[in-house]
Amino acid sequence: AYHTLDTDGIRAFLAGVPALAARLGGPAAHWRIREVSDGNLNNVFLIDGPQCGVCFKQSLPHVRVDPAWKMPLDRTFYEAAYLREIRPCVGALTTDILHFDPDLYVLVVESLDRHVVLRRGLMAGGDWPDAARAVGEFVAHGTFRTSLLAAPFEEITHRLDVFSGNRTLTRITVDLILTDPYRDHPRNHWISPELDSIAAEIRTDPRVRRRVGAMQARFLTCRQALLHGDLHTGSIMVSDDDTRVIDGEFACPGPIGFDCGLFIGNLLLHLFACRDSGGQDRAVRNIVQFWTSFHDTFLELWRTSARQDGNGDAYATTLFRNDPSGLRQAQADFMQDVTTDTIAFAAMEVIRRLVGYAHVPDFDTIPDLAARAGRQGAALALARDLLADPGLVTSIADLASLARDRTG
Ligand code: SR1
Ligand code: MG
Prior knowledge:
alpha+beta, Phosphorylase Kinase, domain 1, Aminoglycoside 3'-phosphotransferase, Chain: A, domain 2, 2 domains, 5-stranded antiparallel beta sheet, 3-stranded antiparallel beta sheet, 15 helices, binds 5-S-methyl-5-thio-alpha-D-ribofuranose, binds magnesium ion
């Protein structure tokens, strides 16, 4: 019997789960309950007890920020499934799942109340020198270990098939990221008329259309690994000495470059929103550090698996046992494909966050609307060029330095 819980309901719910009540400690009446809902979809509360805190998340039967947009409740089921699948792969780079209630679609995880959301921290001018490296490690471990490089196809397809059922949120991704910005749709919006012409150019350029079509097919047909599916800077919590990836409700099988592209796309948005050169330098450094960490960790996992006669069915160890240079070339080819996907998905993330449905607040730090539109237009022009000309940049280092040049 699903119903949306208010603070009294949350208190009663937690008191009724012995392990959670014991974790919080003390009498339930003493628990402090705060709503911290920040994303577009769910209700989120932090509950502090005398001993410990927990984070409570509940699906709503609609989009949180748009109650007229009705939506099935299954997203916390997939987030719980993702945490169960990924936590053994990435350890403390994500949160520990404490409880899932399949009737109320309630997910309870450990509380990160000494952390801040990376996007908000970056907007305030903060610097977390280790965060991008940690996110790269998260993506490398999470994707390698759920790919056919790591285990036989029977095991991997069985694990990925669960997430093929995440149709509600995959539909959101297909519409909001991969389709709507490239057609006339009432969900698309932007404030500044200065963006009209670049938005129109993006829709009418036949080279962009061909590339977007190819990336739609890539997202929907390339079941390379289990993806987080919504890896933007609002899905990352940071403290001085800790980084966690949260909010895995969009988890689905897909191309690894989709996760990398969304993260880099959001760092590009932050770069274009930064007006001081120190902030721009940090944004570029974060892009390069993320990629280096992802790339090096992924390949190290692959090499280790090959040395230990890993039993993945793709790039099977037996093929390369006496051919180390062949393995190195195969790895380079594989990574070039991931790089190409990453650049295209990063461009598509930039576009959808500026002229699609779900915008990002990064540019709100520029109070002058004309100046803001100038920066947004420059980000859109870069994204358009990246999609129109796949040869414009072929490495993430070149992408970061071209973006830096384009910030003026
Ligand atoms: C209706 S959901 C809009 C966006 O919010 C989520 O965080 C995802 O990014 C989704 O595309
Ligand atoms: Mg989210």
